[in-house]
Amino acid sequence: MKKGIVMEIEGAFLTLLTPEGEFLRAKRQDQPYIIGEEIYFYPVPIIKKTNNIQRIGDLFRFKPVWIVTLALIIILGSLFPIIQNDKAYAYMSIDVNPSIELGVNNKMQVIELTGFNEAGKKIVSDMSEWKKQDVSQLTKTLLLKIKQAGFLDQNQQVIFSTVRTKEEDKDAEEKLQEHIKEIKAAINSQALEVTVVNCTEKELKKAHQLGVTAGKYEANNRNKAKINVKTSEKKNAENSYRAELKKNQTSQIPGQYKKQSIFSSENKDGENENKSSGKKIPPGQLKKMNGEKAKNFGQLKKEKNQQFQAGQKEKQQTKLKEKQQTKQQIKNQQTKQQTEQQTKQQTEQQTKQQTEQQTKQQTEQQTKQQTKQQKKDAVKHRGNNKKHPQQRNKNREEHHNHNHNHKLKQKPYGKYKGKK
Question: Which strands, in side-by-side order, build the sheet including 110-115?
Fold first, then answer.
């Protein structure tokens, strides 16, 4: 007896799938069966069929299994490019003061964006909707954000690094090179100095362990190598200088020891030098040669000191010139501001004077017009009085009565006291 899952019900037989992955047949019993149900059964031996048509028919009997497998294959095939697009093909980093790293897929779309210091994290937090954006466009926006935050100055050094995490793909590599050129042009447009660094995946992992970008890690390594070269050169120069001093000091040893040491050194030098030529140089000539070497060394040392002093003077002069230029620029700005203020004041005064003159002219015109009108009215009144003497007398009486009443009102307790 075996255990299996019911896969198909066909007449008096069942097809079952065992845990070992075998498809077996069993006779159908007097009970209900459901596809997918797990039962115990006695297998029936399958007779091999030689007919090809019958074999094809047997394949079509297992339709559900084939449908499921085909569906799984289609789903996995559709998910494969999505999984590839979600994986980084390369990493790019920008290091100014903020250190930012971008992960890019084979379509040059940004799928990762991380800041490796406080400034970088702050700028990344301000960014929104950066996923699946074009690399060059996103780097341009990042540069603008960095400039607005005040981290970019003219002639400042920017480290730009690239790391490939997968095998080179021709299409992806061409796109990557095009975007790198575009990013370089965008950085150069900001008047910045770019140093491009190509790193390996191992260096990227080491940099991430130290908490820095690959570009920063490689730049630090280069600086250390330069410092080591300089120190080794200094050490070699010091050792050669000390060796020459020891040779020159032998010529200043007093007495017989001096002669012995000179002769021994001269003989050794002569032997070493004259092995190839076969000639022997006398000790006097060797002494002269050593003295000339010492003089030449002293001259070289003096020349180096003079060159160093001249370089320092040039640096000081350049610094002084820069300070003078900055002072001159500040003075020019101040003078510009003063001239602008003076021009504003002058314009304001001129406008005030013009308005005052206009008001004066208007008032004068109004007064002139009033006086002219009054004169015209007076002339008309005189003409009317001449033409009509009775009216003139009435006007005089009315004017006299009016003045008399006005005086009584002003002085009730004066001359006319008690009169009504």
Answer: 110-115, 99-104, 90-95, 157-164, 193-199
